[in-house]
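Apologies for my clumsy wording, but are you able to produce some protein sequence, whichever is easiest, and the tokens describing how it folds?
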Amino acid sequence: MTPPPSTSAPLVVVTGASGALGAAIHNRLSEAGWRVVATYNTRVPRPARQDGDSTWVHFDAADDASTEALRHAVDTQSGRLHAVFACVGAPSSKRPVAQTPIGEFQSVHEANTLSFVRTWHAVAHRARSDKTSVLAIGSDAGQAARANNGPYTAAKAALEALVVTVAKEEEQHGVRVNLLAPSLIESPLAHHVMALKGVTDPDRYFAQLPWGRPLTLDEVSAACIELATSAHWSYTTGQIFPLGAVR
């Protein structure tokens, strides 16, 4: 776990902090004493730990007001904005493209791709002045197209393109922008997705994965924080980092 770089409780933003991975990142940072501006959408946040100092903001990828609310929350915080973790996302319904409504393509793109754009619109001015590190959470689906996952694959691939684009645009300001693309993570969302795919025996499904298990929230959240905050990653920008194993 990377400790805060100073005793002044550096500031970070975690969007999607009420989801499983966002919550794991938020809790790790909060427990270590970081100040966190954290966002939620459909679920009222119930942090597992009360350590640290968190400011919660409602954030909806389809709502212009959310961009302003997040910008205001960040602007009212003192000190350097050290890192931004963009964790908002949503799965598809796991149907063939021919049976997937256009509206689903739009909503999945909004959640997984435009949420990053809104986040960047909210924090860009502060990130430039503070030379912030930005980490988006993607998926191995962004580079591994699978049947019955069209909206999600397309959205995550678009997110990867955006991350590289923003990294090139913002290098002149000292902003680093990267993406971590994990494979399946053990979480309530994973079980929901498996149900959509018709999986009735999760343990048997997991046994077919590399090492016979999915990733854990603990190891993915640790990797996210390490990549975004550790000094030995400070050269890295515009990179897509897979987090998985050969199959």
The chain is about 40% helix and 15% strand. The longest strand covers residues 176-182. The longest helix spans residues 102-130. Strands lie at 11-15, 35-40, 53-58, 81-86, 133-137, 176-182, 240-243.
